[in-house]
Amino acid sequence: MASNPFIVSWWPLALADQALFHVSLQTASLYEELQAQKGFPISDLLMVDSIALVRRRIEDPSLAFRDETMDSVVTLAAIEHGKGNIEASKMHIEGVKRLVSIRGGIDELKRRSPLTARMVSWVSMLVMESPQFPTKDDAGDGDGISAIPQWQLASADAEGQHETLDTSLDTLKITPPMINILSRLRRILHLTWHSSLDNTQLHDLTCFVVHRLLLLPPLTDTNADADTNPVQLAASECLRYAIALYMLIIHGTTYYSHAGLANAILRQLRYHLVVLQAAAVASTTDYIHGPLDIWVISVGMVATASNGLERDHEWFMDQACASAAALGLSKWDDVVSHLQVILWARMPQEELFRQEWERAFVKMSVT
């Protein structure tokens, strides 16, 4: 809690600013009203004052571009999104993006106001269900969202790193952008670095990686290299969306639910997993079930269970049962050995994966 980027500096700002204080109260009331499912009477009442206070700030040149104004606007976007007022939430995001541009871009904002930059980049992606800002390159150059220092240290060209990837990935020849991202994450999460990541660093890593993954152009037969086969394309797309979900899972909910974004990613993951399975059957590759399949399905099971997507969860559970049967997996330890081949961090969320696989094994035993 002490290093939560949305807690440490937020309340001192809110207590000193009337507009930010009002929208912060709305956030608390919205949570209670969402739980009660009886409408938004308190939030709607507070919204009248919040809008008036924020408009007053925006109309004042001395206040319009301050951190508190941007924090208030992006919080209003989150509130409207939570209430289902999608167009209103998008309008607020477009407004705060203009403020970011006037302040010199997201990188300059991060340098001067880290909390506000984190709020804007994170909430805007959750509300719009897609990245709203670019990322810097791996060396930290350019204007955009920055990676943590460990990302730059975890060079994908480090000696011996590629050899640590499982031969099944070599066989599939995952596209270079995905090899780069996966290799760096493995070095961060598999080594001792991840145990020293505080909440702020984990948030910054997640924000950067999810932005980077979702900003990659879609892989299709028309924009791929001539020697890229359909299995490689589909496997890379599965990895792209599964890694994004995995980062959201280990990150957890901070300040505002990422369920909408996760659901959008899940739709892509399921689609590309079906494409991968069909491409593998139609090709000469011997890939049908393996570590990649187990890892992607595991992420899908946990993500759908966490978001209450019963039909999608049942589908991923069926895929898990089929893959486990094909590979002769019968216990959690068997699964872990496959997960570690791809990407696996020893974090509290490991229990979520174990629980889902225990349910899958029970289902296998009664069918």
From TrEMBL:
Keyword Nucleus attached: yes
Protein name: Transcription factor domain-containing protein
Domain of life per record: Eukaryota
Keywords on record: Nucleus, Signal
PANTHER family: TRANSCRIPTION FACTOR (ACR-2), PUTATIVE-RELATED-RELATED, TRANSCRIPTION FACTOR DOMAIN-CONTAINING PROTEIN
Nucleus recorded as keyword: yes
Residues annotated as signal peptide: 1-16
Record organism: Trichoderma citrinoviride
